[in-house]
Write a structure and sequence with these properties.
mainly alpha, 8 helices, flat
């Protein structure tokens, strides 16, 4: 995919102001790293996916979301998108195995088969954890509504909410790290002389599970 859209193009396509676009880039750089490259004179050039991200930013801004809220929404939505792509890729490879048996009518599993299967299971686990996390947040919000009439001051309630927000953000970061590691491991499939690197990545993945 071509990286041919400048910041000026992003502004023209979305109607967003350049200062705001640059703020989004600074705040969400780690989320957009796959969608832009550095061009001449250190300019920033985006691909079509980058344009789609900023179109979503525009929608969220029009809904009244702050920059921090926009970043949190993008984190969740982009992770879901990566999970969907990973699942589709895994399903495609498994279908290939099912419909291409060997001469002895036995499905041969290539060296990466079990790694892909494990990756699929970990992705599903991460999705389940995210769903459980959302359910816990909803439950806790309901509990907080019930506790408004207790002896806590508004400041104490706000402090509790902030601690919970930080906790959820940390959990979300861990989920993102897991998915990125799975992607790095899969990227090494079929390559020679990378066994040590793959083992290191697998060990790192085990540490954060």
């Amino acid at each position: 995919m071509a990286f041919d859209k400048s910041i000026a193009d992003i502004c023209s396509f979305t109607g967003l102001k350049e200062p705001f676009v640059r703020r989004v880039i600074r705040e969400c750089k780690e989320l957009m790293v796959e969608y832009f490259r550095r061009g001449d004179n250190n300019s920033i050039l985006f691909d079509d996916n980058g344009l789609r991200v900023f179109d979503r930013v525009k929608q969220l801004k029009q809904e009244g979301s702050s920059l921090q809220e926009i970043k949190q929404r993008l984190e969740i939505e982009l992770v879901k998108q990566e999970e969907l792509v990973d699942e589709q890729e895994v399903k495609s490879k498994i279908e290939v195995l099912k419909h291409n048996p060997s001469e002895n009518s036995v499905v041969e599993k290539p060296f990466w088969y079990h790694e892909v299967k494990d990756a699929q299971e970990k992705i599903l686990e991460a999705k389940n954890e995210l769903l459980i996390g959302k359910q816990e947040v909803i439950h806790q919000l309901k509990q907080q509504m019930l506790l408004i009439a207790d002896n806590r001051s508004p400041e104490q309630i706000q402090e509790d909410k902030e601690r919970e927000r930080i906790k959820l953000a940390n959990e979300q970061d861990l989920r993102i790290d897991r998915i990125k590691l799975v992607g790095e491991i899969k990227a090494l499939e079929g390559r020679y002389f990378v066994g040590a690197k793959r083992l290191a990545l697998l060990k790192k993945l085990e540490e954060i599970l």
